[in-house]
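Amino Acid Chain and Its Fold in Token Form
===========================================
Structure side: the spatial fold of the chain, written down as a series of whole-number tokens.
Position: the record begins directly beneath this header, with no further notes in between.
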Amino acid sequence: MRNTSKYDRIRTGEVTDVAEMEKKLRYRKIEMAHPYKIYYNAKREAWITPHPLDYKKRIQRKTKEALLEALEPLVLDKPGRKLTMSDIYPDWLEYKIQITDSPNTIDKHEQHWHKYFEGTPLFLKPIGDITVEDLMIWGNSLVKKHDLTSNKWQTIKTIPKGIFQYAYMKQYISDNIFDNLRITVKFRQPKKKISNSQIFTNDEYEAIINDLWTSFEKKKSKNYLAVLLNFMLGLRVGELTALQWSDICGDYIYVHQEITLLQNTELLNKPNFLHQFENGSIKTLPNQENQKYQYVLVNHTKTHAERYVPLVPEAQKIIETLRALSPDHRPNDFLFEQNGKNLTIRGVNSVLEYACKHIGIEPKRSHAVRRTVASRLSAVQYSPDGIRDILGHQDLATTMKYLYDPQTSAEQLEKMQRALHV
């Protein structure tokens, strides 16, 4: 039979002096802060509970009072418990910089922090005081306020989720409650846009290909050839501009790196990214002195997966034209380098906008070229998985979003008439 402790006498009201009442309140606070059950083991004649920071470990004491005293520094005296998410964010971001190889990912975190989280009430509340209810109210309100899609929510919640994981790792909190957050409001359902705004329809395709060749013949600029080649490859624009002569492998082109625009150049001075410069995994492109934003070459694609894309005869014709313009090229020279400067992402979109205006259609940008390639392949029954491989997507669901009907309205109407004709 267990002994009646002073704590039990406090609970039953047998002890009434002020000091004992204060102790009673303190013990109750410890119990409330402790995430696990406290129980008496008669066989061991001891009070036992899981360790608040490691469930697999156990703490046991002869009396409940002694057990609560042992728990106090573990559940009440955490130095980080009173830190807010705003306090922790800079440390978390610095931690992320150490474990990521993408400066643009860090830049995106900064943008999302300023837009959605900075200075908001939840992010100014001590993280140890935040409840699941707080998270539920905050998360659902945020989705409603900004009319977020599910994809957008998944992207921006990376920051608070990461802060909670970091706080748990640093033992600022004894339990990571963020995973209990559930969004119950409806996400905005993105509507698939109409085909002629997202791709080049059959008549536009023919017109823009002819216009780009005509412009090239007049100006002999590789920029036109770059866009023409991408109508045969469907690469991301950063992958296109990063192509080098050594990437041409017979009837295929090797896609393994990309050029990206870095808006926060201060990140380049961080130790992790300095290390990447030293080992060559990130390179700054030349002729960018005193520019606010800089283009950098990274040794991976967006999905960190390399691939080989087939070169159809028309693509090989374009490459041979490029060879004629660069008879003395070296293996590591960029395909579209001209007069000491390489083609930029902005340069590709400028050529497209100019060509669209020339043929009398609304401007379309480089991603419309990717969707066009995917849609034209789908229209001739090219397998979805094959299209996914060419585009470099990780999952088929993403590829399916790129598929539109490339037919013109007149072509669609004609097919309907044939199909429904009696």
About this structure: Residues 2 and 42 are 7 Å apart (CA to CA).
